[in-house]
Amino acid sequence: MTATVSRGERRKAETRRRLLGAAAQVFGEVGVDGATIAAITEQADVGLGTFYLHFDDKDEVAAAVADDLVARIAAATDDAGAGIHAATRAVCAVAADEAALLHALYRWHGSARSGGLRAAFVERIARGMKRGIKTGLMRKEDPTLAAHAVLGLYAETILYWASSGRDDWDTLAAFLERTTAAAFSA
Amino acid sequence: MTATVSRGERRKAETRRRLLGAAAQVFGEVGVDGATIAAITEQADVGLGTFYLHFDDKDEVAAAVADDLVARIAAATDDAGAGIHAATRAVCAVAADEAALLHALYRWHGSARSGGLRAAFVERIARGMKRGIKTGLMRKEDPTLAAHAVLGLYAETILYWASSGRDDWDTLAAFLERTTAAAFSA
Amino acid sequence: MTATVSRGERRKAETRRRLLGAAAQVFGEVGVDGATIAAITEQADVGLGTFYLHFDDKDEVAAAVADDLVARIAAATDDAGAGIHAATRAVCAVAADEAALLHALYRWHGSARSGGLRAAFVERIARGMKRGIKTGLMRKEDPTLAAHAVLGLYAETILYWASSGRDDWDTLAAFLERTTAAAFSA
Amino acid sequence: MTATVSRGERRKAETRRRLLGAAAQVFGEVGVDGATIAAITEQADVGLGTFYLHFDDKDEVAAAVADDLVARIAAATDDAGAGIHAATRAVCAVAADEAALLHALYRWHGSARSGGLRAAFVERIARGMKRGIKTGLMRKEDPTLAAHAVLGLYAETILYWASSGRDDWDTLAAFLERTTAAAFSA
DNA sequence: TATGAATGAGGTTTCATTCAT
DNA sequence: TATGAATGAAACCTCATTCAT
Fold first, then answer.
1. From CA A40, how far away is CA A34, in angstroms rounded?
2. Measuring CA to CA, how many Å separate B105 from each of A113, B27, B30, D137?
3. Rounded distance, CA C21 to CA D89, Å?
4. Which of chain A's residues 53-92 bind strand F, using a 7 Å CB cutoff?
5. CATH number for the segment(s) D59-184
6. pTM (global) more than 0.85
C-alpha cells in the first residue's frame, strides 16, 4: 500500500527536480532570456542531453518553474488563512526569499504555451475580488481589470523593494494593505 | 545666422531617425530581445553596417527609443496641463497608439547603462507625488514607493487593456483616476 | 532428439525477429540514414538497450534486413522455377509488397562490412548470365557488367513504378522481359 | 557596355563558386548525407557562417551541385552532336572525371525541393526516346518507363566501372551502345 | 558616411552508446 | 536478458560585429 513508484521512477523525478531547481537559480541570476540550457544543466550537475529527457525547451522549464512558484505563493497565502492582511504578509515573505526569481519570471514575456506568472496571479486575485464585491466589502469594479491593477501595484513595489536591498518587508506589507484597502474598499 | 548644419550632418540625423523608427517598429513586433540588428536596418532600409555608425549596440537603440517614448508621453501630459485627469487621458492616448512598443519596452530588462522606461516614469511620478504631498492633496507616503505603485498599476492595466483589444480607453482612464484618487488622496 | 533450444534462446530469437521487422518498417518510412535506433526499438516495442544485445549498430541491422529481403526474393524466384519470365514476375511480386523497403535499401550506400542489396543481386544475376552464355541463349558479354546493367534496369524501373503508384505490375514485368530479352539474347 | 557587375558582386559570386566546388569535392568523398557544412566551408576555406549567406541548407547546395553536373553532362552531349554514339562517349567522359561525385549524387535521396540527378536525366532521355519513336528508329515503348530503364542501365554500369577502377571507358561505352541499341531499336 | 559580405563564437538539439538496475 | 535514464560529441544555425570598398 506504499506509493508504488519504482526506484528508477524516483531517480528520474529527482533529476527533474534538480533541473527545476537549477533553472530557478539560473533564471534568478541572468533572467529567463539570458539563461542557456548549458548553464542550467551545469548548475544541476547533469549532462546536457539530460535536459531534453525532461523538457522540450527552455519555455517549458520556465513555465514549470513559474507554476512551482505560483503554487508556493498560493500555498503560503492559503496557509495564512483569510484576509488581505495575512495574504500580503505571506506574499512578501516568499518575495523576500525569491526576489531574483520573481523578478526574472515577472518580466518574462512568457510563451505561446504558458501564461506565466501573470495569468495565474490575475486569476487568483480576480477570484478574491469577486468575493469581495459580492460580500460588499469592495467597491464594484471589473474584477479582472482590478486584479491587473493590484498585480501591477504589488509586483512593481515588491521588485522595487527587493532591488533596493531593503529588508523591512513589514513596512512594504503595511503600505500595500493600506493602499489596496484605500483603493478598493467600499 | 541660421543654424548652420551641413548637408552631411542633416543626412546623418535623418538616417538616425530612420533607425530609431525602424527599431520602434521591430521592437513592437518581436520584442527587444527578439529584435536583430539586421531586422532593424532592413526595416530602416539602410545598410547593415550603417547601424554601427549611429549606435554601439541594441541596448543603446532600445534606450534611445525608450527615451523618445518617455519624451512623447511627457510632452503629452505637459501639454494636457495640470491635474491627474488630463495626464491620465494623455497617457492612455499614447498607449492606445503605441501599445506594442510600450509592451516591449516595459517588459524589457533594460541594460546596465539605461534604466529604460521604468526609471524615467518613476522619477516623473515621484516628483508629482512630492508636490501632491506638499500641497496636502495626497496622503503622506514614501514618494518613490508610491510612484512604483502607481507605475505598476497603470502599466499592468494599460497593457491588459491593449492586449485584450479593447479600445474604449476612456473607460480605462476613468478607472485609473478613480482608483488612484482613492488610493492616495489625503 | 528434437531440436533442444531452451526457452531463453527462443525468446532471444523472437526479439531479434521483432527488431528486424521493426527496422524494415522504419527503413521503409524514413530511409536507412533517417532511421534512429530509438525509432526501431519503439516500433519493435522493445527497450532501447535491447537493440545492442542483438546488433552492434545500424549498419548491422540494415545488412541483416537486406539479407532477408534478398533471401525472400531469391526464394520467390527459385520457387518460380527456371526462366526469366517466371523470375521477373516473382521479383515484381515482392517489389509490389515491399516497395518502400526496397527503395530504402537500394539507395542505401551500404557499409564497409556489407555489400547491401546490390552485391547480392549482381552475384545472382551474373550466375544466371554465365549459364545463359554457356547454353548459347545469351549474347556473349562480360557477365558482371551485364549483371549490373540488368540490375540497374530492373531497379530503376521498379522503383519508378512503385513511386508513381501504378499497380499493374504485369505491365512492368512484360516490359522488363521484352527489353531484357532484346538486349541480351543471342 | 561591359557586364555591369560591381566588384562586390563578382566577389560574392566567386565565393559561391568556391562553396559549390568544395561541396562537390566533399560529396564525392563522404556522400551527401555524410557531408557536414563545416567540412564544406573548411574545404572552401571560408568561414562557417558564410555558407548560410549563399545557401539555406545542405539540400540546397546538393541541388545546385547536381544542377551543375547535369548541365555539364548536357553540354557535353550537346557538343558531341546527334547520335547515341557520341552522347554515350560524352557521358562516359564526364563520368570518368567525376565518378565519385556522380556516385554520391546518384545515390542521394534528393530533397522535397529538388528532383536531383534522376529527374533531370530521365527528362532528357525521355525526350530523346520520343524523338526516336516518332522517327521510327525506336521500338514503341512508354518513353518515361524506357528512360528510367536506360538511366538505370547506364548509371549502374558506369558506377560499377568507376568503382572497379577500370579506365577503358571506351569498352564500357561500346557495351552501352550495343546493349541499348539491341534493347530499344525498332 | 554608407555598405553588405564575411566571420566565428555561442546557442540549440539530436542520437548512438553505456551502464546500473 | 531486458530496460531506459543519462551522457556528451557532433551537427546545425543565428547573429553581433568587423572591415574592405
1. 11
2. 22, 8, 11, 76
3. 44
4. 53-54
5. 1.10.357.10
6. yes
Q: Where are the domains of chain A?
A: 59-184
Please determine, looking at this structure, whether the domain spanning C57-184 carries the CATH number 1.10.357.10: yes
CA-based nearest distance C117→chain D, Å: 13
What confidence score (pLDDT) does residue B114 get?
78
Q: What is the DSSP string of A157-177?
A: HHHHHHHTT---HHHHHHHHH
Q: What is the pLDDT of residue C186?
A: 84
**Treating both helix axes as pointing N-terminal to C-terminal, what angle do D84-97 and D99-107 enclose, rounded to 10 degrees?**
100
Query: D19-64, pLDDT tens digit by residue?
Result: 999 999 999 999 999 999 999 999 999 999 999 999 999 999 999 9
Phi, psi of B138 (to 5 degrees): -115, 150
Q: What is the DSSP letter of A139?
A: -
Nearest nt by C1' to B38 Cα: F15
- Residue carrying the nine cell digits 516473382: C90
**Is B152's CB within 8 Å of A148's CB?**
no
- Please tell me the predicted confidence (pLDDT) of residue A1: 43
- What cell does D54 get? 549563399
Domain spanning B7-184, CATH architecture: Orthogonal Bundle (1.10)
The nucleotide minimizing the C1' distance to residue B53's CA is E1
SS3 for chain C is CCCCCCHHHHHHHHHHHHHHHHHHHHHHHHHHHHCCHHHHHHHHCCCHHHHHHHCCCHHHHHHHHHHHHHHHHHHHHHHCCCCHHHHHHHHHHHHHHCHHHHHHHHHCCCCCCCCHHHHHHHHHHHHHHHHHHHCCCECCCCHHHHHHHHHHHHHHHHHHHHHCCCCCHHHHHHHHHHHHHHHHEC
CA distance D30 to chain C (A): 10
pLDDT in tens, D72-116: 999 998 876 767 788 899 999 999 999 999 999 999 988 878 778
pLDDT in tens, A109-155: 888 787 789 999 999 999 999 999 999 999 999 999 999 999 999 99
Whether B3 shows a pLDDT value over 60: the answer reads no
- Give the confidence band of D133 by pLDDT, cuts at 50, 70, 90: very high
Helix %, strand %, coil % of chain A (to 5): 75, 0, 20
pLDDT of residue A2: 46
> Residue D21's CB: how many other CB atoms inside 10 A?
15
What distance in Å separates the CA atoms of residue B175 and residue B157, rounded to the nearest whole number?
10
E-state strands within B78-180: none
User: What is the tens place of the pLDDT at every residue in A66-113?
Assistant: 999 999 999 988 876 667 788 899 999 999 999 999 999 999 988 878
Q: Which of D79, D106, D101, D102 is nearest to D90 (CA)?
A: D79
Closest approach of C12 to chain D, Cα-based (Å): 33
Chain A residue with minimum CA distance to B107: A107
Q: Which of B14-28, B128-142, C74-88 has the lowest mean pLDDT?
A: C74-88
DSSP label at residue A136: T
C-alpha cell at D145: 518507363
Burial class (CB in 10 A: 0-12, 13-18, 19+), D1: exposed
Strand F contacts (CB < 7 A) among B residues 8-37?
Answer: 35-37
In the chain, the amino acid numbered D111 is S
Query: Would you state the pLDDT for residue B82?
Result: 65
Q: Report chain C residues whose CB lies below 8 A from the CB of D152.
A: 151-157
Q: Which residue is nearest to nucleotide F5 (CA to C1')?
A: A12
Burial class (CB in 10 A: 0-12, 13-18, 19+), C2: exposed
